[in-house]
Known about the structure:
The structure holds 2 protein chains of 2 kinds.
Chain A: H1 2-55, H2 62-77, H3 81-102, H4 112-147, H5 151-157, H6 170-173
Helix pairs in contact in A: 1-2, 1-4, 2-3
Chain B: H1 2-41, E1 44-47, E2 50-53, H2 56-83, E3 86-88, H3 94-110, E4 116-120, E5 127-131, E6 137-142, H4 143-148, H5 151-166, H6 169-202, H7 211-257, H8 260-271, H9 304-308, H10 315-327
Parallel strand pairs in B: 4-6
Antiparallel strand pairs in B: 1-2, 3-4, 5-6
Amino acid sequence: MIVVLIVLAGIAIYLVSVYNSLVRVRNEVDNSWRQIDVQLKRRHDLIPNLVEAVKGYMQFERDTLTQVVEARGRAIAAPDQASRVVAENQLSAGLGRLLAVMENYPQLKSDQNVMQLQEQLTTTENQIAFSRQAYNDAVLALNNRIQAFPSNIIANNFGFKPAEYFKVAPEDQVLPKVDLSLGAPRA
Amino acid sequence: MAERHDSFWELEHRNRRETALLVIVFMALFSALGCGLDFVFGNLRVIEGKVTGVPILTVAALLIGSIQSIASYYGGAALVLASVHARPLLAESTKEQTVLDVVSEMALAARMPVPRAYVIDDTAPNAFATGRDPAHSVICVTRGLVDEMDREELQGVLGHEMAHIRDYDIRTMMMIAVLVGGIAMLADFVYRWSWFGGFGARDGGDRDRSEGGNAGALIAIAVFILAALAPLFSQLLAMAISRQREYLADAASVEFTRNPRALLRALEEIAKTESPLKSASRGVAHLFIVNPLEAAAGDDSEGFFANLFSTHPPLSKRIARLRALAGQGLSSAPASAAAPDSSIA
């Protein structure tokens, strides 16, 4: 009798702990997703300042600058998640090009304001990438728990849904890799 | 990365267990030393095979030990930072801003809160992390690290520190730093007094020639030996706990940056350093990413005794492990120096 009670209590404790870990991982997925949003928002805020600061120096790069500004506008105005992802990826590509061509303007290096903006933009780009990486790690942890035995039984009974990975469209993956280390000149 | 994710919960639990064990060992050492002092000062006596008296100093030592344990838990980080003369890192130049930014980047990659940043004015490149949990964590870098490392190398080093924070190594290491210092101080005190008290009293009155006197002398000798060995013992404990964690943090740094070259390049750069870090003492040496007491260029000793007495695995071994990782195609990503794998961006 006592043995049965102990076994039942043990099973109950196990179920609760599996459930709690599922909740924890699901919250991490949600939180990581919000982190991406925070960084994307920060990038939107930075772009007008950077464009304003470099416009005077970069008369001949009008195309690059307009592309960035337009991509930003599309990303902000995007009606749904899918088109927003596309626009943000185009913005990443455009910014990469802008930061790369800025290398050709050595006079930018002496402008403290530009250097600061460049550092801010570089770290924002990195933080977007790292928060996507963290999001995908969290999704992997959640999906493993939802699919693996025995936690899948609990997950299915309590309606835990597998999360979607942050994927990049094929045409975006072949973009040339851009050197973003401009913000960190070696002394 | 579910395995990694799970293993990091295991690491946290292991660190909680080891911190508890550490406090117990520390309290045992403290009360043993206090008990020894009681015998030395005659508060406790062996009369006809029975221990009599009031162990005032044992209780006092236990009390001091408890207070020190609690104080080191809450105030350890401040103590450690003060002992290495660290001050808050401010964004006064672009380079300093870059370090602060990379701290935020690695915190995001590790899904941890952003630690506060401190700096030590010393040209030897080095770094450590401390604090009682991730929400109260601190990353401290040297001026040399700020000046010499580029963005990629900074990501490697700060990723390593972020790993110590995520796995709660920082708490264990901080407690070790403060408690080992406490043991050393008390042991030193007991050592001196057991010399005067124990051996001095032996030549004294009649009672010392009795059976109890001999037992008292034996106890005094035992205390003397204990006091001499306690600092060494606690130091060895600190080293053993610290060494294995360095490899784990190196691996976790690569997990965060997805770029073995980052930490590899940083360690290779540090390995060239000729000068040790001036403000670091033995008590805090195990906190740093590389041993701050020896010039990194000479830190290549191996073998049983060299391993027993060092807080870090040899740099050459750590570099070799990272090279192996970099060779496995994980290095395909960093075509750019600063961007994390941009194929996921």
